[in-house]
Design a protein that fits this description.
The chain is mainly alpha-helical. It has a domain of 46 residues. Helix content is 54%, strand content 10%. A hairpin with a 2-residue loop joins strand 4 and strand 5. Helix 8 packs antiparallel against helix 9. It is elongated.
């Protein structure tokens, strides 16, 4: 009951927080709702920071699209299932990969581990069907360390696509990948680490790691 009382008390004399995002988007959300969702918000809105007193919070690196999905997650404890809607539509699938890559990175910043892991599962459900978007790959290289799960997933699946079938990527797509700083070296390294078989002089990855390998482990009470 103590935990129940503690939760309920945060909604007494609650305030509305004005959220300002990187792309100019603005949302108004209950402070208690935000604080229940992650340690990041609890520290920002219940500590000695300026945001706690003026009821305004700027979230750097977070787009309106990402924040809409964060609100959906807070309210539903899940993310939409895009797999069926994206069937046979490579362009939309690539756009959704970029969206999910950004959401994963934002969730990492906001210490929302459960959302981060669910985002990874949704991303992999798409990359299991479609080739990797170079926009998503570029986003990951720009914002994540090279040992980051998001980067390892995209590199692994791109390697699988490249070595397992001919004509998977167009020459324009390969040029776009090659223009990403650090991509070629990382692509070669992950290809060497994957389990491979020799088949007609081609190296073909024969396994795809389970989603659990790329889960982020919570350091404390995170959502």
């Amino acid at each position: 009951m103590e935990a129940v009382e503690e939760l309920a008390s945060t909604f007494v004399d609650d305030a509305l927080i004005s959220i300002e995002l990187e792309d100019g988007g603005r949302f108004t959300v209950q402070r208690a709702t935000l604080c229940q969702s992650s340690e990041y918000f609890r520290k920002a809105l219940r500590g000695d920071f300026q945001e706690a007193s003026n009821n305004k919070l700027k979230i750097p690196g977070c787009t309106s699209e990402s924040f809409r999905l964060i609100l959906y997650w807070i309210c539903n404890s899940n993310l939409p299932d895009w797999t069926t809607a994206l069937k046979q539509n490579k362009m939309d699938a690539h756009s959704r990969q970029l969206c999910l890559a950004k959401l994963w990175l934002t969730s990492d910043m906001l210490l929302m581990v459960r959302l981060q892991n669910e985002t990874m599962r949704k991303l992999r459900s798409i990359t299991n069907i479609y080739t990797i978007s170079h926009e998503a790959m570029s986003c990951a290289f720009d914002s994540a360390p090279h040992d980051s799960p998001i980067l390892q997933v995209l590199l692994q699946d791109a390697s699988r696509d490249f070595f397992s079938a001919t004509g998977t990527y167009t020459s324009e797509e390969m040029d776009a990948f090659g223009s990403i700083p650090g991509f070629l070296q990382a692509f070669i390294e992950i290809g060497e680490r994957l389990k491979i078989n020799n088949h007609y002089h081609m190296k073909v990855p024969v396994s795809r790691d389970e989603d659990s390998k790329f889960e982020v482990k919570p350091a404390a009470k995170n959502n």
